[in-house]
Amino acid sequence: MRARHYHLIGIGGTAMAGLAGLLLAKGYRVTGSDQDIYPPMSELLERLGVPVFRGYRPEHLQPHPDRVVIGNALSRGNPEIEYVLDAKLHYVSLPEVLKEEFIRGRHSVVIAGTHGKTTTTSLMAWALEQGGLRPSFLIGGIAENFGTNFRWSESAYFVVEGDEYDSAFFDKGPKFLHYLPDTVILNVIEFDHADIYADLEAVKTAFRRLINIIPRRGRVIADFDSPVVREVVTGAWCPVHSFGTTPEAEWRAVDIRQNERGTTFEVRYRDRSLGEFITPLIGTFNVRNCLAVIAAATLLGVEREALARALASFRSVRRRMEVKAEIAGITLIDDFAHHPTAVRVTLEALRQRYPDRRLIAVFEPRSRTSRLRIMQRAFEDALLVADVALIGPVFRPEVVPEDARLSPPELARALRARGRSADAFSSVEEIVRHLSLRLTSGDVVVIFSNGDFGGIHEKLIRELRHREGATTREAP
Q1: Which of 117, 178, 208, 368 is a Cys-bridge partner for 95, taking CB atoms 3.0 to 4.6 Å apart?
Q2: Between 218 and 141, the higher pLDDT residue
Q3: What is the DSSP string of 425-452?
Q4: β 5-9/330-335 pair status
């Protein structure tokens, strides 16, 4: 029998590329198309051998595939979407495919919340792996312990990152409502995705809908350090297990100690100590991520020794405080953060890791929310944690009305008025030239973007290596 053919429009997205891998693992034929594909997903798709068409053209759908998966970043007017509708091809969203092809019939572990989803999902999958459960998973980033963001196995468990963003242009509900949740980890909830949610109340309504579909035999692991999470889980039909640093939490992290190598903390379950755990991760927010996994995995039967081994050996996720290079004493770090709180807590964690070094933040307003003026003051407060803030141009500014668009020059002026060195730039090349003339040994540069930021990482590394080589040649 001919294998079912799936065509993925927008295949370069992190979740879409992972879905391609899952479908291949199940024996399906997969093709895809996208306008802009960059590492690490371009490398993953090439390694998988998935044929990827550049750009969107109706002929990419000839002969007709059995299913067309339409990514949530795409909308009406896309040539392939218009052809799909005209030809009445069978089209679905990514969450629909995940639900029916991979999750139904398995214990679904959904990691949700505004922050920490990718790291927590990766750590949860690794904890179940160390516990011998060999889970299937789909993660919104490359989990370094697995070297991939997906896996399909015969396990009874599927671990998935539960995004509250909408599913597709024809399905404006949150992705996580498709995932048939049994165990839900609910991290901190804040206002985000201002392009689709009017306010925090709208965000809370989305999460309440998630909590409302957990079966009575399921469970929610709730971050009680977040007042909004406490409110959202009220009235859950399933047991609620709380975690956090607050004394009211059922699972608590106490005696938190951090250094350049990571974090040590004690876990207390109610009045009983479960001993110390060690993780290479830094930042109190990552302690809460670890604590959530300890609680959830323990409730799924993973032993303490396996959990300790998982935390100690966890290698994090690509593009989460990832050290890209160390050149002439300068540390270059890549981070995916694109919400003000995520930027702030990442900078605070890096400040703890590198307490005596100059911290330089380079920020690209790229996500649909970070491009909005409504977030400008919050980004100002976040970037104050750095010694120096460099703001790149707004990505695709034409899609945001000028009066609603974040202004990098205004943001830089506001930071300078509050005593920080700050500048706004009109191109990546300007930022690289600026940094190459001013960076000195000991500096820590962290680049914040949820995209490729015009290849800034490679360009800066190339410039610094060129500068180092020139200095070496000039030395007597």
Answers
A1: 178
A2: 218
A3: -SSHHHHHHHHHHH--TT-EEEEE-SS-
A4: unpaired
The per-residue pLDDT for 476 is 35
Q: Which CATH superfamily is domain 96-313 in?
A: Mur-like, catalytic domain (3.40.1190.10)
Distance of CA 192 to CAs 108, 151, 326, 338, 469, Å? Answer: 25, 29, 33, 10, 44
* Contact call for residues 49 and 30 (beta carbons, < 8 A): no
- State the Cα–Cα distance between residues 453 and 220, nearest whole angstrom: 36
Instruction: Give the pTM.
Output: 0.82
> Minimal CA–CA distance to 115: which of 397, 361, 349, 396?
349
Kindly state the tokens that stand for 188.
């901190």
Pairwise CA distance, residues 168 & 163, whole Å: 12
Q: Distance (Å, rounded) from C-alpha 129 to C-alpha 342? A: 28
Sign of the C-alpha dihedral, residues 127, 130, 134, 139? Answer: positive
Provide the 8-state DSSP code for 103.
I
- Enter the tokens of residue 51: 């044929």
- Asked if the model's pLDDT at residue 71 lies above 70, the reply is yes
Look-up: residue for tokens 């024996």? 27
Residue 476 Cα distances to 15, 232, 343, 473, angstroms: 52, 66, 43, 8
Domains of the chain: which residue ranges? 5-92, 96-313, 322-474
Given 2.60.120.260, 1.10.357.10, 3.30.2390.10, 3.40.50.720, which CATH number is that of 5-92? 3.40.50.720
390 beta partners:
362, 423
Query: How many angstroms separate the CA atoms of 314 and 119, rounded?
Result: 10
Q: Residue holding tokens 């969203």?
A: 93
> What is the reported pLDDT for 281?
87
Report the C-alpha gap between 191 and 342 in whole angstroms: 12
3-state helix, strand, coil in the chain (%, to 5): 40, 25, 35
pLDDT category at 475 given cuts 50, 70, 90 is very low
Pairing of the two strands 67-70 and 91-92: parallel
